[in-house]
Amino acid sequence: MRPHSRYFLLKEDVKAGAWFLGDPLDALGQKVEDIWAFTEGRPVQAQGRLKIPVIEPGLRLEFSAAGVGATPIVHVRVATVLAELAPEDVQLIPVEVEGCPDQFLMLVATKLVRCIDETASREVQRYGPDDGRPEKLGQYQSVAGMRIDPAQVGDAKVFRTWGWTIALVVSEDIKNSLERAKIEGATFEEV
To answer: Which positions fall inside the Immunity MXAN-0049 protein domain (predicted)?
Structure first.
């Protein structure tokens, strides 16, 4: 672990007038069967070139969360930073964004880290036996005010959190590089 490491949730900075992207589609224009596979913290097998529909036209963001799975879609400028600083932590899959000539890629964090600090987080709730979701037993049902234990992260710079994979976490050096590049659409929250 790097001493005094800080980590941040990387999220879309939702603004009025910005585009809204839909769920990924396969090469035939059908919804991808398992949209959640892109946020599970492991590499994925892409079946042909994926297409991303624009549900609401507007300002094109360089970091967007597409569809209900909030799959990160990033401009090539973002992908370049991530590929340089965290090549072992990311899978970048070229996608075609409807009506957009710019090069965009889907960002898949390939590491899953068990690091949520339950005592430091504001509130955590886990799935129990009475919740009717046996496949989620022990995983987080909700996490508010999430904090992580940096000692558990190891050398990961981009990762998903075990049990709460909707959280996409980046290291401080990734955050700083994206901020220096003035990436449109990204916001950071320290965890």
So the answer is: 101-191
